[in-house]
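Late entry, written up from scratch paper. The run itself happened at the end of the previous shift, but nothing got recorded in the book at the time, so transcribing now.
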Amino acid sequence: MKLTKQKQQYLALIALGTIFVVVAVYFTVMANQFDKIAALDKQIADASANVDKARKAISKANSIQQEVEQLKNVILDIETNNMPPAGDKYSWFVDTLRKFLVPYQNQISIPYRSREVIGDVGMFPSFPYKAATFSVRGNASYHQYGRFLSDLENKFQYFRVQKIILSPAPPAEGGVQSRKLEFDMDIVTLIKTNAP
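Output as recorded:
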């Protein structure tokens, strides 16, 4: 069957109209739906990644809990063995310093030790420790003082030495210049604020 030219034009217009309607429907309805599907796919992928992270964290929970318990024990050991007890902090400091000075007999003399001054550490808000500051004064040779200071800070990791004042020792009898120096310094240590 042969179509007339006019019918062929109508058919072409109908085909073009149909194509236009399909394209219009695609861009107005379908493209929006594809964007929503892509966004949902991304949300699903993110949620899946979060679930995987949560599963990994849950699987590590026991080892993390054990590590926390070990660290609590380390802190308890430090508080028990390296920090002043809840009672007389001055006696603890004097006894600790006396024991530490045993290898330095006749080399370092620290006749003056002040009572502690308690203050804030000033590091973090609600820090669970306070600072106890003890002032000490003594004399030693230059090299012995350097060794003493180094050993003190290495042995007592929770001590901090500050405000060091060094001066030559006064001349010995007969006006002979001494090879010693006098020192004045503060030793600061942490103390637990809620100690029993």
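The two ends are 108 Å apart (CA to CA).
(Scratch paper discarded after transcription.)
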